[in-house]
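The methods section describes the discrete structure representation at length, but only in general terms. What matters is that the chain and its backbone geometry are given together, residue for residue. Nothing conveys this as quickly as seeing an actual entry. For illustration, here is how one protein appears when written out as sequence plus structure tokens:
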Amino acid sequence: MNRTVIIADTQNEYMQRLGQYLERFYEDQINLISCIGKEELKAAIHPAEKPLVLIADELASSVQRLLWEIPVVVLTEERDACSIPGARSIWKYQRIDTLYNEITAAYEQKEKLVLFHRPKPWRILLFQGVSGGVGTSTMAAVCARNLAQMGKKVLYLDLEPLGTADFYFQSREGKNLSDFLQEVEAGADAVELMESGSKKDSSGVTYLSTSRNAADYYSINWMMLQKAIGRLSVSGLFDYCILDKPFSLEKSHAVWLEVSNRVIFVTDGSETGNLKFVRAFLSLANDRIKSRSMLLYNKVQPGCFKELAHVDLPVLGKVEYLSAPDRKSIEKQIAERGIFMNLDGKQ
């Protein structure tokens, strides 16, 4: 029986010596693929058929996404000194026959050695304001902060032409959306780029502001963004993605409604606000989108508010018009209402 085994390490000298010994004594019993570092492992792991991966302890934690649902054994520098809880380990520096026997034993039990499981896809919450000035971006930002405070990993994407993400969140460094997509188009991996080049607020929210200047918004490659979002959705980097994007009747906007787990329409409950919302909502031909939608009343003013009785949608909350000296005070007052504590996002 010829067993496919991938061995990945950061030490070239060790890999060469181990490979030579295994091929010399066990060539007819093992199909060995040697990898030095992450990039070689990334190239080797896909073509291999049902491999067992032996990976150096110091390399394992940085390549978890490459090893989802794959049997893994950790190679350790010292006996019984594996840094990854629950992992089966083999000490690197032992007799070649003993090492081979341990590899063989692990291979026979490889179905039980899956160490890193594919995470659940994130949940996308799309905030939509049909009328201007109803506080859609404020609500999206508060939702992102609330989820982060609950221990969730949150990505906030500002998809407004005149986006204000840098008003709600602060970071001294990091890319905006236009720069991010340019690098993805040039061949960069969206997940690795997000890990190394995104903006991160002190609240824990990771975010991408729209662009360096408003004119760049119209050169955004929306198809590339959708592909990047698809890649990020199953990366395990985030639990939630908050999208702040204007409502549109364009066909291209339907894609964003389709991929979202929740569509949160923000309105002030005024006569004109309600009229615009009803017209927008009735334009959604897809019942699945309607079933994912919720209402959030914001900036409600006494005497002008009228709840939408003829639209059968769950109401996430109602916030009166708030008067405060600054943005942070308003955000705090909204957060204290616990509106987003009831957001299950299961659809």
Summary: Residues 12-26 form the longest helix (15 residues). The CA atoms of residues 127 and 244 lie 5 Å apart. The mean pLDDT is 88. The longest strand covers residues 293-300.
